[in-house]
Write a structure and sequence with these properties.
The protein is mostly beta strands. The chain has no helices and 14 strands. The strands form two sheets. It has an eight-stranded mixed beta sheet, with no helix packed on it. Strands 2-3-6-5-4-9 form a six-stranded mixed beta sheet, with no helix packed on it.
């Protein structure tokens, strides 16, 4: 599974993340303030796990503008789950494939593991096999794990508000 990113230095302050839970489907979405133009793909990157879980990155000109997640069965709960202590401040772009520059959707099937802390305010999604990664801040409360080749290896959602089911 390869979802390549370009990593560029940045001095911009991280943008906020707006989280929303869909009360009917329990799908969590994170909306980001777009970073402007880029030269990457536009469309969506869909990662599907064998258990029915999925994670979608909405992309505009290479910039991630949103993330949607649905996880079935339930997320693995960890007594303590914290993001890595070392997080790089950088700008990332989803690279276009040279062989398919006009492709608007990329679908990938891979192992997808979701875990959360006891309060369900921190979520971590691991894509593919475990490997060495570095963590990049995409937005104030959204981090990406990238492997040595700058392929997506994980996503962190921080400070997620509690799910409020309809009464």
């Amino acid at each position: 599974m390869k979802i390549p990113f370009q990593v560029q230095p940045t001095s911009d302050a991280p943008h906020p993340v707006e989280y929303r839970w869909d009360p009917d489907t329990e799908i969590l979405s994170a909306q980001l303030t777009p970073r402007g133009s880029g030269k990457g793909m536009s469309g969506s990157v869909e990662v599907e796990g064998a258990d029915g879980s999925w994670l979608i990155l909405e992309v505009s000109s290479g910039n991630i503008s949103g993330v949607e997640v649905a996880v079935w069965p339930d997320v693995q709960r960890r007594a303590a789950l914290k993001p890595p202590g070392k997080v790089e401040e950088a700008h990332v772009l989803v690279s276009s494939r040279k062989s398919q520059p006009k492709v608007a959707a990329l679908e990938v099937e891979t192992a997808l593991m979701a875990e959360t802390d006891e309060t369900e305010s921190v979520f971590h999604f691991t894509l593919g096999r475990p490997r060495q990664t570095r963590t990049i801040r995409l937005a104030r409360d959204l981090l990406l794990d990238l492997d040595a080749s700058n392929n997506l290896a994980g996503v962190w959602l921080l400070n997620v508000p509690p799910f409020q089911a309809r009464v």
